[in-house]
Amino acid sequence: MLDLKRREFITLLGSAAAAWPLAARAQQRERPRRIGVFMPGAASDPEYQARNAAFLGGLGELGWSAGRNLRVEYRWGMGNTERYRAIAAELVALEPDIILALGTATVTALLKITRSVPIVFANVSDPVGSSLVASLARPGGNATGFASSEFGFGGKWLELLKEIAPKVSRVAVMRDSAIPSQMGLFGAMQSLAPSLRFQLHPIDMHDADDIERAVKAFADTPDGGLVVPASARGIIHRDLIISLAARHRLPAMYAYRIHVANGGLISYGIDSDDQFRRAASYVDRILKGEKPADLPVQNPTKYELAVNLKTAKALGLDVPPSLLARADEVIE
């Protein structure tokens, strides 16, 4: 009887010992994964909050939830590009499993700090020309993601500006000097400008005072208009830019719908929220074992055209019915 009990105890002990590695592995699998998020703007900005909500919503559809199997660490650039490298170093020091980054300048800063932590980016223009990836099909390093626009967007912006404001002959292009690809974008726009009878004038955006001085000086000569390409500074300073356009009666073309919602005239660009929902799928795949080097950079799939009729009326513009018919959103 005693021998029987001893044998049962040894058998039970052996079974439990065999189960311990399985339990340990299960516990390890359930360890919350850590995601770093680097946004160039302010945490209080509703535009960046909308993009973050789209990202978290995309993750939720894939079974990831902050506080359950995810920890999300945020860092906000506040438009201060001089601090981006320090912010990137701070985020990498947290040892995240992966980092989501918005915009060329944030990814550039991160790649100066790490070549091992996986990075998924969104809203990056010309990632190959900016040396973020080796190629779109085979990124080759620790970064991949979703491109924002091609140089062809510049021509589209000029065409739409001419359509809604045919009297404009001088166009100030408000470039973000932190984005190297915007120099190439300006060159592409220059090649098309003569066919539309436009003279282009670059304005390099830095801080609010620089923007105000440059726009005021440009507006001293009549028949002017503005183009504001996609950039973090264009979003951060959007209220100032929109008010300057209204004050100086400058028809303005924007890359983001948020500008039109806040009083700008017209916008054409990618659906940014869609990019962040799609970015969640890459984060999911990398967390499950795939490598950024093998995931191709994807181009935009959704675009949106928005027009603000109230602003058009204030500028004395008659919006062509053909343009209104193509618009995805018309603000009355």
List keywords for this structure.
alpha/beta, Rossmann fold, five-stranded parallel β-sheet, 44% helix, elongated
The class by helix and strand makeup works out as alpha/beta
Oligomer: single chain
Reading side by side through the largest sheet, how are the strands ordered?
A: 7-6-8-9-10-11-12
The biggest beta sheet is recorded as: 7 strands, mixed
Tell me the count of domains.
Answer: 2
Beta-strand portion reads: 15-25%
CATH topology of the largest domain: Rossmann fold
- The residue-averaged pLDDT reads 90
Q: Would you identify the regions where 5 or more consecutive residues have pLDDT less than 50?
A: 1-7, 16-28
Principal-axis shape equals elongated
Count of individual beta strands: 12
How big is the Rg? 25 Å
CATH class of the largest domain: Alpha Beta
What would a concise description of this structure say?
The protein is of the alpha/beta class.
Tell me what you see in this structure.
With 332 residues, this protein is α/β, with parallel strands linked by helices. Helices cover 44% and strands 20% of the residues. The chain folds into two domains: 32-148 and 272-300, 3-Layer(aba) Sandwich (Rossmann fold); 152-270 and 304-331, Rossmann fold. The protein has 13 helices and twelve strands. The strands form two sheets. A seven-stranded mixed β-sheet has the order 7-6-8-9-10-11-12, sandwiched between helices. It has a five-stranded parallel β-sheet with strand order 2-1-3-4-5, with helices on both faces. The model is unreliable at 1-7 and 16-28 (pLDDT under 50).
